[in-house]
User: What shape does this take?
Amino acid sequence: MPTSINIKETAVRRESVLSRVEEVSDLLAQQESRRIFLVTDAEAWNLSGAAGRLSPLLEKYEVIGFTDFELNPKLPDVQRGVDAFQEARADIVLAVGGGSAIDTAKLINHLSAQPRPTADVVRRNSGPAVPGRPLIAVPTTAGTGSEATHFAVVYDKGVKYSVASPHIRPAHVVLDWRLTENLPAEVTAHSGLDALCQAIESIWSINANETSLAYAEEALQLVFGNLESAFLSATSNNREALMRGANLAGKAIDITFTTAPHALSYPITSGYGVPHGAAVALFIAPMLLYNSEVSAVDCVNLLDPKTTRRRIDRIVELLGCENTEDAANRLCQMLEQLQCPRRLRDVGITSPEQVQAVVKKVNAERLANNPRSISSYALSCLLKSLL
Assistant: This one.
């Protein structure tokens, strides 16, 4: 396992990080909480063991549960949560689950505090923001990094929006790898691939800095070095490393945001039901090759093309490869090992017309963070090469 990054996290992060679920009891006592708004995916709550470990700790509190939401948060679900939260008058929010549960909790907490209508805040994402209640995030997957970011994703009529504010980031995080012990292998794969792609994208992002690069590089080492083993037969060391890696990847994208693979993934997830991590991973190898050919003509990074190429070389090195072609092939081999789709036809996209429909829905905001500019025509060519 690589040496931990030498960064004083208290200087750049605000949340407290705990390692055992049972420590939630101390947090609640410190906050002098009485009414808890619990946002959780019922399946994750039980499968992860959180129910058995947290329920006894919550018995002396009034707990208002909210489980009425789908994967990949939808605006109507979030609005129902806002209404329930405002009626509950809870003094703290507890989010337990994967990225969808944590993002839903972040959105409910943040949007409930704002004086403007929920839909207006989501669609405009502007104006001064008001802090919500303290939020404790307890991830039960190792992948999304949602517990570490100041933004949350929500879909409205198939369109993806990202709501961002410093107030959205959870105040407290519990990274207990034991909650991932019972994850189905495919969930381990999909969530791990999300973290892997976040780390790679953060390294080449135009917003990368010294701090984000340190987070992203360690995240890539941890996730790449443990994901395949965790998929086949996980050990406690694999689980713990993935949990740590996913959190670091979240911290990295909290600074840099994601880039082209994530921009391309959203219409694949919303339109074809492909799990988010698997959808992003479809594009990571092709974009590695594409970005490696950056030039002065198409470089978006204000530094210079050499900076992007150095970062690409660092990704290749961290993947244990000699060149970008080998690294791209290694990433494709990983997808095969994890039994994830490698071609668009594997997810139901078989025609140029479907490709064009995807291109029209690509998230421009995330695409703008990519170090090499990419036109609609180039996107179409890239997608058609994956048919």
